[in-house]
Write a structure and sequence with these properties.
By secondary structure, the chain is α+β, with helices and mostly antiparallel strands. It has two domains: 64 residues, Arc Repressor Mutant, subunit A (Orthogonal Bundle), CATH 1.10.10.10; 157 residues, Chorismate lyase. The chain is 29% helix and 29% strand. A six-stranded antiparallel beta sheet has the order 4-5-6-9-8-7. A two-stranded antiparallel sheet has the order 1-2. Strand 5 and strand 6 form a beta hairpin. The longest helix has 14 residues.
Length: 252
């Protein structure tokens, strides 16, 4: 499709719109590499600067990701994380059709931050802490920090690296998780998190805090899970009729 050079719409915006339409039509699927900017410029008879501006517009729109030394690729569909069932993070991702790789970045006994110690009722005692990086198609999309209650058995690094948190409880500690408290909020990433997730400047993350409890009501673990807000969403399905409060009934 030719660009209209007599249009009041800038050439790079026209080109960005054509690429956007091609992505929407399935001509370029998630993970596909877009034509290199020189080839794009030549095929559309525009300057390389114009081609670059068009691609960068799609990057800002979240439709395209740039990989250093590799090119520009159609972004994958957002990861959808269902909050209905009590499942571990990795298991929930797999249930949603995502098969991530998880890398263990850190493993140590530490005195947790004050807010974590309060939730775990651990005081000044050390707890087992580990950090994981989650990747999809080689691209990082989330990081988690887990802290286990101090009274729990200590597990070796290789065991933690190979198993999800809830699986550690079930298989190696013979403990069942009874329920969990969840809180979701947006937050600004630290410099470390921005680097791990390869975030653009100013990009927020969406954070899930989880405290899991044993049947006796004692806290078993605290997890902070931060994901790139541009390609991640939490979902909650409501079933049945939702009651209307009296205040709303007056105007319903």
């Amino acid at each position: 499709m030719k660009l209209r050079r007599d249009s009041h719409v800038a050439l790079h915006r026209q080109l960005a719109q054509q690429l956007r339409q091609a992505i929407a039509a399935g001509d370029y699927k998630p993970g596909d590499r877009l034509p290199a900017e020189p080839a794009l410029a030549e095929s559309r008879r525009v300057s390389r600067i114009t081609a670059r501006q068009a691609v960068m517009q799609l990057v800002r729109d979240g439709l395209v990701v740039r990989r250093q030394g590799k090119g520009s690729f159609v972004a994958a569909a957002p990861v959808q994380h269902d909050l209905v069932d009590l499942r571990g993070i990795y298991d929930e991702l797999v249930a949603g059709g995502v098969n991530p790789n998880a890398e263990l970045l850190d493993y140590a006994e530490v005195v947790p931050p004050a807010n974590v110690a309060e939730r775990l009722r651990s005081g000044a005692r050390k707890v087992l802490h580990y950090q994981r990086l989650y990747l999809r198609g080689g691209e990082p999309f989330a990081v988690s920090w887990a802290y286990l209650a101090p009274q729990l058995p200590k597990l070796a690094r290789e065991i933690v690296a190979a198993h999800t948190t809830y699986h550690l409880f079930e298989k190696f500690m013979r403990l069942g998780i009874s329920h969990a408290d969840l809180a979701v909020r947006a937050r600004a990433p630290s410099a470390e998190l921005r680097k791990l997730l390869r975030l653009r400047a100013g990009s927020p993350v969406i954070a899930l805090e989880r405290v899991s409890y044993l049947a006796d009501g004692s806290p078993a673990e605290f997890t902070l899970y931060c994901a790139n807000a541009e390609n991640y969403e939490f979902a909650l399905k409501l079933r049945g009729k939702v009651p209307i409060t009296p205040a709303l009934q007056a105007v319903a």
